């Protein structure tokens, strides 16, 4: 189930029939996905490497073959 881009109300409707165990499994899978982080200093915001790569990819222009 893809919840990306959904409103709170849409997510509530999609998850209404899920059991507690299924919801816990879903939460666990979301919070354990994070990999390497980039942090410039201790007081800066940590950003997942996947987020940095996605941001960089948004600027990438593929070469014409």
Word description of this protein:
The protein is 45% helix and 6% strand. With 65 residues, the protein is mainly alpha-helical. The protein has one domain (8-57). The protein has helices spanning 8-15, 20-31, 49-57; strands at 37-38, 47-48. The chain is extended, with a radius of gyration of 17 Å.
Describe the structure in brief:
By secondary structure, this protein is mainly α. The chain is 45% helix and 6% strand. The chain has one domain (8-57).
Which key phrases capture this entry?
single chain; 65 residues; mainly alpha; two-stranded antiparallel sheet; 3 helices; 6% strand
Question: What layout of secondary structure does this protein have?
Answer:
Blueprint (H helix, E strand, L loop, with lengths): L7 H8 L4 H12 L5 E2 L8 E2 H9 L8
């Amino acid at each position: 189930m893809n919840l990306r881009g959904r409103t709170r109300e849409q997510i509530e409707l999609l998850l209404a029939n899920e059991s507690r165990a299924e919801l816990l499994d879903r939460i666990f899978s979301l919070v354990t996905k994070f990999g390497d982080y980039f942090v410039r200093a201790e007081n800066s915001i940590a950003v997942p490497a996947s987020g940095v790569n996605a941001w960089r990819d948004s600027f990438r222009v593929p070469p014409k073959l």
